[in-house]
UniProtKB/TrEMBL annotation:
The lineage of its organism: Bacteria, Pseudomonadati, Pseudomonadota, Alphaproteobacteria, Acetobacterales. This is CsbD family protein. Residues 8-56 form the CsbD-like domain. Keywords: Membrane, Transmembrane, Transmembrane helix. The chain crosses the membrane at residues 73-91. SUPFAM superfamilies: Hypothetical protein YjbJ. The keyword Membrane applies.
């Protein structure tokens, strides 16, 4: 059994660390630090949200797996759109 409480806590800590890095990067003008902060925020949020999939009382992981198996093209479209949005956020043209 996965310890969802510690997994959620790790996600929240990582997201908070990302917010700090993002803010420090914005203040100092360090784009690399700011991008790293955004990545930390996203991965922390994903870890926090993903821990809900392991909830013993609900079989969300099974539901997600079934959705992907039943609708592979829709799932691929969703993942592609998310990747495009993240790419746009992280690699914006400046000037």
């Amino acid at each position: 059994m996965v310890d969802t409480v510690s997994m959620k806590a790790e996600g929240l800590v990582q997201e908070a660390k990302g917010r700090v890095k993002d803010a420090v990067g914005a203040i100092s003008g360090d784009a690399a630090m700011q991008a790293g902060g955004k990545i930390d925020q996203l991965s922390g949020r994903a870890k926090h949200e993903f821990s809900d999939l392991y909830d013993a009382n609900e079989s969300r992981l099974e539901a997600v797996t079934a959705f992907i198996q039943e609708r592979p093209f829709v799932s691929l479209g969703i993942v592609s759109l998310v990747g495009l949005v993240i790419g746009r956020l992280l690699f914006r043209k400046r000037g």
